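Please, why this fold?
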Amino acid sequence: MELDDALDQWLRDVNKLVPNVKQRQKITLVGAEVYKTRLHDITKAKHYDENHKDTSQVTHLADSIEVSGTNIDYIRDGTSLVGFTKKGINHGRIARLLNDGTKFIPGDHFVEDARRSSRQAVLAAQYAEYQRLLKGGNS
């Protein structure tokens, strides 16, 4: 086998391992769902008040977490986002204030805790989806 043929074959083999945009989106959405679940659980554990659940017409912070299959500019490039909605009130702003703290409220860094504690589970879920899509041949 000539060097050119060997390199072409190697390149074809490597390209089979690289996911396309549609596959990347499926892979990152699986990880985003895992992270969303962990963020919801931590947010509810640290900032949920059972006594006030029926007094407000506003969705609770833990229930306002959404997953998007686009990047920050709403372009489908294979990335996914997890964040707080802005429906009714700006839940992202409230989450930032609770996470980082203010002059009057000490921050508890629940978003960083969720990100850190879910990292291995997110990667495991994404790897399983990668294996299913690319190794299994299902696109």
About this structure: Residues 21-47 form the longest helix (27 residues).
